[in-house]
Amino acid sequence: MTIRVGRVSTAGIALALALTAGCSGASGAPKALAKAVLKVATTANVTTWDPVKSFSTEVFYLANVYEPLLWKNPPGSAQPYTPALAESWEASADKKTWTFHLRPGVTFHDGEPMNAAAVKASIEAAKDHGGAAFIWAPLKEITTPDDKTVVMSLSYAAPMELIASSMYGAWIVSPKALAAVKADEKYYESGKDGGTGAYTVAEYTSGQRVVLKKHAAYWGGWDKGQYATVVNTITPEAVVQQQMLTGGQVDIATSLPLENIGRMRSDPKLSVIDCATASSYLGFFNTAKKPLDDPKVRRALSYAIPYKEIIEVGAQGFGTQARGPVPAGVFPYSESTPQYVQDLGKARELLADAGYADGGGLKLKLTYAAENQSQKRFAPLIKDAFAKVGVTVDVQAILFNQQWEQAKAGPAKAQDIFLLLYWPTYSDAGSDNLWSLFHSSEKPFFNLSYWNDAKFDKLVEKAGTLTATDQARARAMYGQAMSRLHEQAPGFFLYDVKAPLVAPKGITGLTCNPDYSFNIFFHRLAPA
């Protein structure tokens, strides 16, 4: 699997668009926005151009090159989904058979027809070796009664419309491209692609630049004024993005310093919206090593964490305290899920009960992604708070890939505390967050707490089979699982992220959608 490094490497979650300095005028849209070229500063690195293996920040580009069967609409929309490569779909009463009717007349960028065989091949590839292969776990078989019909037979009931609209693992790819990458794993690296989307990959310089060009024959069509070329400059530092923005080098910056958003609210040329996201910050305790193998110690440290201060300093106020690993607004979130609050007295009491009075000389190592500015701000707050209960913390900022390798080397060599930014692959945090982060596994992928709990496992396994047919019962079982997490504390849950959306008055088509909060769909943007 490809690591979703964007889970923690994103320098900031804020999506920010602002007017290029000196280009605004009272008579209309800024001149820069009227050009055919849109210039973007982004934090999104590319770990792979393979849309099947992708599970990282390159989704920022791939979502403009490839398309799924359906798009999930933002909360509050008149319809929950927008047809993409499927025009319509229906499910059997038991939710174990799903039929998708494909859009006619669509071709891939390489000229191949988008048909039932192509959809079948794409999904089977994703299930077999995809970065998000786990989303297709319910799928038993795909059949193609005709060229424009795809039937998915499941081994258990599942919300296939959610899975088919996933941000990862659901892209439909040209059969020619699938065959080519099978023969040569570097096929995509020369700038080729196998999508049906509005843009193609025209240029790529690793770690520096991605250029997208419009696909003239895009089935969705083009209107006058839409951007024919999008030049993305990879810029991890939020301050540098702001300098590029105010200096006129870019039209869009995807990560601005959160501490400067307040000033932007008073700018008459800008509008600022606080967008909900499906992202949240958490930390893992290494439960396979002493002293963190003791739930009392883990609960003690959970009580020591300064949650409010972390939101004020780390998130600059753009967050709300998390209730477990399921973000607010995402199934199966529940207001009844218990939270820890800072209580240093309770923390000291639990440490003493565990045999570590006055901290007992405990020394722990905490790592966070050096690329992540929010973690850089709040990691020292955790160190200071733990010191108040006698626990010494060695805070280390290392690149995420290095942090990941350290954790994957095995619990004996891993850090004691691992900070992480996570978001669900699709809008079901039961089958993703709860399972991916804390379900037992002999070779854990994201369960970097190394926690194994049969009671928790049984609850999430059963709940996952009920989501499509008895959501209330599934929610109740997931609620029990989250209470178990609170009780056993294999990790701690900091805050759900809110993203300030700063947009110029001279651009249209920009919307908030927590299911795709890392993406900008360039084809929808145009000068006002």
List keywords for this structure.
16 helices; alpha+beta; about 525 residues; 20 strands; 6-stranded mixed sheet
Helix content: 25-40%
* C-alpha Rg (nearest Å): 23 Å
What is the name of the CATH superfamily of the domain at 278-497? Dipeptide-binding Protein, Domain 3
Please tell me the overall pLDDT: 90
Trace the largest sheet across and list its strands: 1-12-2-11-10-9
CATH-assigned fold name of the domain at 278-497: Dipeptide-binding Protein, domain 3
Judging by the overall fold, what is the CATH architecture of the domain at 278-497? Roll
User: Class of the domain at 278-497 in CATH?
Assistant: Alpha Beta
Q: List segments where confidence is low: pLDDT < 50 over at least 5 consecutive residues.
A: 1-34
The number of E-state strands comes to 20
Shape: globular
Number of H/I helices? 16
Instruction: State the major sheet.
Output: 6 strands, mixed
The helix-and-strand class reads alpha+beta
Percent of sequence in beta strands: 15-25%
Signal peptide: 1-26
Pfam family, one: SBP_bac_5
GO molecular function: peptide transmembrane transporter activity
Keywords: Signal, Transport
Question: How would you describe the overall organization of this protein?
Answer:
The protein is of the alpha+beta class. The protein has a domain at about 280-495: Dipeptide-binding Protein, domain 3 (Roll). The chain contains 16 helices and 20 strands. Strands 1-12-2-11-10-9 form a six-stranded mixed beta sheet, sandwiched between helices. The chain has a six-stranded mixed beta sheet with strand order 14-18-13-17-15-16. It has a four-stranded antiparallel beta sheet with strand order 5-6-8-7, with helices on one face. Helix 9 runs antiparallel to helix 11 and helix 14 packs antiparallel against helix 15. The protein is globular. Residues about 1-35 have low confidence and may be disordered. It is found in: Cell envelope. Belongs to the bacterial solute-binding protein 5 family. InterPro entries: Peptide/Ni-bd (IPR030678), SBP_5 (IPR039424), SBP_5_dom (IPR000914). One of its GO terms (biological process) is peptide transport.
